[in-house]
Amino acid sequence: MQKKNTKSLTRLLSALFFSAAMCIVFTHNADAKGAAVLQPSDCIKCHSKEPRSIEENGKKHQTDVTCLDCHVEHPPEGTNAIPACSMCHSGEAHYQLENCMGCHSDPHQPLNLQIAGDITGPCLTCHEDQGFEMQDNPSKHTDVSCTFCHNVHGLIPDCSKCHEPHVAGQTTTECLACHPVHSPLMIEYPMTTPRPYCTACHEEVGELMEQTRTKHQTFTCAFCHRGEHPNVPLCRTCHGEPHSQTTHKKMPECLECHLDAHNLVK
Questions:
Q1: Among candidate residues 112, 116, 96, the one with its CA nearest the CA of residue 104
Q2: What number of H helices and E strands is found in the chain?
Q3: How far apart are CA 149 and CA 145, in angstroms?
Q4: DSSP of 59-86, one letter per residue?
């Protein structure tokens, strides 16, 4: 009997202590009528993990809202302690997707996405431009899911993960200087692009350029083949019409005599 009374007394004291503590908490947080009003500073007295998560990578959940903007209820005053994402996020295609927590597993770090499996459609509800670019410029990249390359949200993978570089030591930045990642066959390049980047695919042309003894030997490929790939320039672009009108009329195609721009016959 004495043991039972001791347990009851312990429970009573605990309840009294909790009530006293809550009175202390709300002493300085009261409305005009003296009723207790919660503040974010009260939330963190019990919930320490969530504020740390928000501080580390909360994005707009850190800067634009407080605990009480999302968690409008808390037992025993209401039971909806975990709000629906749609309470704030609506009106856009991405917000119509089901199972937000499937990717945004930690709402206190909403952009720290946990991505698993082959996903494309949900990604394109935010990244529409990239989706249109891939559809308008079909390549093998069009045939794989977004998460095949971006298995971590925001990750820009090295091209060498899937592709052999044109030359040893070539970096992803150098790859992207010619190949836009979502339309890799729409090749554009600066005139300073090193010749080996081109001749890795055009080997025969590279061999001819090494053999020629004309000024062409000193040029980068991009010096003549400017703009988008493939671009075959006219000789007249640089050379004009160096011969007599009679000769040009008789031989309108320069390579009828000079045979190959990469190894000219003079």
A1: 112
A2: 15, 0
A3: 8
A4: THHHHT--HHHH---BTTB-S--S--GG
Name the DSSP letter for residue 212.
-
For residue 167, CA distances in Å to 7, 20, 170, 172, 198 come to 78, 73, 6, 12, 10
Structural domain spans, the chain: 36-97, 187-266
- Secondary structure class of 188 (helix, strand, coil): strand
In order along its 266 residues, the chain shows pLDDT tens digits of 545 555 554 554 444 444 444 444 444 455 555 556 788 889 989 999 999 999 999 999 999 999 999 998 888 878 888 899 999 999 999 999 999 998 999 999 998 888 888 999 999 999 999 999 999 999 999 999 999 999 999 889 999 999 999 999 999 999 999 999 999 999 989 889 999 999 999 999 999 998 888 999 899 999 999 888 888 999 999 999 999 999 999 999 999 999 999 998 88
Q: Is 36 helix (H, G, I), strand (E, B) or coil?
A: strand
Report how far apart, in Å, the C-alpha atoms of 187 and of each of 21, 126, 177, 193 are: 68, 26, 9, 12
- The answer to whether 160 touches 191, Cβ cutoff 8 Å, is no
Q: Is 179 exposed, middle or buried (0-12, 13-18, 19+ CB in 10 A)?
A: buried
36 strand-pairing partners: 30
Closest by alpha carbon to 47, among 81, 88, 86?
81
DSSP bridge partners of 228: 188
Tokens linked to 150 = 């971006």
Cβ neighbours, 10 Å, residue 26: 16
